[in-house]
Amino acid sequence: MLSNISFNDFYNEFNLRSIENKKLFLLALLDLNKSFGTTQIHKLSFLSFAEGRLIIPFKFTKWPHGPFSDELRNELDSLESEGLIEKNCEQVINFSKDTRKMSDKGREFIKLYKSELDKIKEELKETISNHDEGAVSLERYCYEKYLLKPDNKRNEEWDAFIKNKIKDILLILDVRSKEVENFEEIEEQKISLILTSFDYVSEILEKLFSSNGVDEVIKGVLVKNIEEYIDKWGEILRLAQKSASIEEIRTKLFEIRKIFRFINESAKTYGVFESIFETQNIEN
Q1: In what order do the strands lie in the sheet with 36-37?
Q2: How far apart, in whole angstroms, are the C-alpha atoms of residue 36 and residue 22?
Q3: Residues forming beta bridges with residue 87, ordered by sequence position
Q4: Fewer CB in 10 Å around end: N or C, the chain?
Q5: How crowded is residue 20: how many other Cβ atoms within 10 Å of its Cβ?
Q6: CA 173 from centroid of its chain's CA atoms
Q7: Least confident stretch, 71-80, 118-127, 186-195
Q8: 39 backbone dihedrals φ, ψ, rounded to 5°
């Protein structure tokens, strides 16, 4: 079945949606709801990157309450000083909760950028709908999903856990590589392409295993996306063995190309590893 799929479905480069305007990104997010807690804004923005695979103009790092961005915080302060958003503080039990919402001035401002904001909002809708829970639930979700160290764990214990996780993924990757090599209904050119991508993600995992200089947040993002990438190749092989429809396999290949490009972009943006696409351009 895989021999009936065009080489372009395996190879064509996937261009991720990239948003460069910090102001419009945050205004689009706030325009999707009446108000968001400040912590929610950080978490939802992070998840639009990590799960929505949307390239956004903020870098995240580990914070006591999950992924956090200094750049995002500064941009929120800037929007507030411009009068485009409003900040509300309320006392909840024994802590102060900050919420942000669009101001009347902000609503007038975004009318000037309706077309661009609508495109950004469309990209953000799925992330918002998937995570409509409160800030505490979002914090817990980010910690668990992206392997961030809980406060009750020692650094050495947590490092050992992450290294064992990476070891397990490398073992699965080795098994998957052998499955691809021994898969009869696929041409050598496609096998070579798949194995090259496996070599690339393997090198990233080895780098993450040996390095203590990579922030916990991006380490978790890369590990989880690489794990999903390997799992989806397993799904493709099973579909091919079951003689699934060509369209079903193409849909999975589309997802795979998106994940792989995201891994490349994230590794490059956070200085973990060079992009395989840039390497190919130099070689060509």
Answers
A1: 36-37, 95-102, 85-92
A2: 17
A3: 100
A4: C
A5: 9
A6: 20
A7: 186-195
A8: -65, -40
